[in-house]
Amino acid sequence: MRSFYSYLLLYISMILLLFCTSTKGYSDLEVLLKLKSSMIGPKASGVDDWEFSSSPSAHCHFSGVKCNEDYRVVALNVSFAPLYGTISPEIGLLNKLVNLTISKVELTGNIPTEMRNLTSLKTFNISNNYFRGSFPGEILTGMTQLEILDAYNNNFTGLLPVELANLKHLKHLSFGGNYFTGEVPDKYSDIQSLEYLGLNANDLTGKIPASLGRLKNLKSLILGYFNAFHGGIPPEFGSLTQLKILDMASCNLTGEVPESLGNLKRLRTLLLQQNSLTGRIPSKLAGLTSLKDLDLSLNELTGEIPESFSALQNISMILLFKNKLHGSIPSYVGDLPQLAGLKLWENNFTGELPENLGRNGKLCNLDVSSNYLTGSIPLDLCKGGTLQALILMDNFFFGPLSEKLGNCKSLTKIRIKKNNLNGTIPARIFNLPLLSFVELDHNFFAGELPPRMSGDSLEMLKISNNLISGEIPPAIGNLRSLQVLEIARNKLSGEIPEQIFEIKVLSKINIRNNNITGEIPPSISRCTSLTSIDFSQNSLSGEIPKGINKLVHLSNLNVSRNRLTGEIPAEIENMTSLATLDVSDNNLIGRVPSAGQFLFFDDSSFSGNPNLCPSNDSHCPARGSSHGHAPCFAASKLIITIILLIILEGN
After folding, report:
1. CB contact at 8 A, 155 and 132
2. Which domain of life is it from (predicted)?
3. How far apart are alpha carbons 505 and 580 in whole angstroms?
4. Strand, helix or coil at 431?
């Protein structure tokens, strides 16, 4: 009896094995093991549990594998593992596959033509790999059920496959991020089921087919980046009434923006930046009532911002920078309830910023630099505590900075140089926790810098060319992330605080043209991250610190036009990174060193020091002896003067 049951079990096992065996006698288990062998390259990891087993259903428990009731593989999902290999032709034997996803596993080689046997496939995702060669369009002819084809970010070349036009169920097509050439096939307009079409970041040329406007179900159309199309945006795209995303950035577009795009009531994102579009911004784009993101930057657009855009009540980002726009910024811009980003830099805008800008409590980024704007800076830019970047430089704004900015803890960047701003700098700005960049130079700020500073994130502090007085606060030493300190051309006085040189990452310091006195702190030698020092045009005295040679990364040292004395430290000759040295117009003495790095500096670096001898002057006192002879020279001059006075009186 037991023998009967044994034979029965063996018979059932053989039947099951036949069920899960593909053509050519390979079982799905064997096919998967062959795939593993080809996909695993040197230093690869992943699919470690794909091992041989006598169980007919063992492969159904492999990671990324799903089977049907007959133990046939219907889904294969291998992603985010560094495999480095190729796909073997045996993959065509998995003819029950419905979902094939092999994404971001760094596979290379060509796509096997045997994949044409995968006639049940609905999802075909091989994105983010290194597959190369032409995409074999013939493998698609039998995939009549295919809904998703994603080959984004590979190395495919050649023409786009036209066989796609016969796939009546295809919804998602992504060939972006490859090297396809030629034109977009006009026949792609036959794929009426298409909802996503991404052909961006290729080398496509020719005209964009107007027939794509017939894709009535299309929700995303992405054609930009690196493509170089001829002509402009087809007006027929205004018929894509289901469209939510239209991205045609940086693809050599010319002509005007079609008014018909205003018909796209569901459009949320319109990206047309970095082209050569001309003409005015169509007022009919106000019909884009669902629009959230508008980017028309880096074109050659003219005219003004349309008054009709007040209807864009859902807009959150308006990017119009680097065009030829003019006129004032409409006051309604400050009333847009969702506005978070406004970037209008490098245009010809005039007038004032809308007074109510920022009152919606959502403003994050404001950049209107390099225009002709004037007036005061609106008070409520950070009303919602979300403002991150305030960039107003190179305009004609006047008046003081609001103390409210000192309470804006979300700020990361303030760039308002080259304006006519005055008053004192709000003290609390220097304590903002996230602020990394402060650029206030070329204004008329006055008063003193605050005695307390604690901004842990501040990396760049630029307040040169103002009217700031008082002493340099030692509290600057608390700015532990500070890399650049520029406070030149002000009215600062007092000494250089030694605490500044406790900042471990400080690379550049410029206090040029102030009224700084005292000596250069010896602690400067401990700030080994310094690459540039400019202390020129002050009233510094004392000697150049002997430990200056410890600044091994220093490339620029300028201490000219001060009252420095003593000899030039010979150790500087070993500072091989030092490209420029200027110690001119001081009271330095002794002989100019002639070895090492000094061979690269000309006489202008040392001029204006009456008691400094050229290196080849044989009458110059020996190095280190100048101090000893100075009293003798002074006594000799005094004796000669007395003798002359006696002779004159005798006569």
Report:
1. yes
2. Eukaryota
3. 21
4. helix
Cα atoms in the Cβ-side hemisphere of radius 13 Å centred on 61 = 8
List, for residues 486-514, the tens digit of each pLDDT value. Answer: 999 999 999 999 999 999 999 999 999 99
Q: Where are the beta strands (DSSP E) in 272-330?
A: 276-278, 293-295, 317-319, 326-328
Phi, psi of 590 (to 5 degrees): 90, -170
Site of tokens 């019909």: 287
Q: How far is CA 153 from the centre of its chain?
A: 20
d(CA 649, CA 651): 5
Tokens, residue 218: 């299309």
Look over the chain and give the mean of its residue pLDDT values, rounded to a whole number: 90
- Give the model's pLDDT for residue 23: 44
CB 183 within 8 A of CB 205: yes
Give CA–CA dist 520/356, Å, rounded. Answer: 49
Q: Residue 381 burial by CB count (10 A; 0-12/13-18/19+): exposed, middle or buried? A: buried
pLDDT bin (cut points 50, 70, 90) of residue 620 is confident
Model confidence at 11, in pLDDT bands (50, 70, 90)?
very low
Contact predicate 540/517, CB 8 Å? yes
Show Cβ contacts of residue 478 under 8 Å, excluding neighbours closer than 6 positions: 453, 454, 499
* Terminal Cα-to-Cα distance of the chain (whole angstroms): 155
Structure tokens at 600: 């690269």
Local structure of 255: helix, strand or coil: strand
Q: Among 605, 575, 601, which residue's Cα sits nearest to residue 588?
A: 605
- What is the pTM assigned to this prediction? 0.86
In this predicted structure, what is the pLDDT of residue 57?
Answer: 84
8 A C-beta contact, residue 651 and residue 625: no
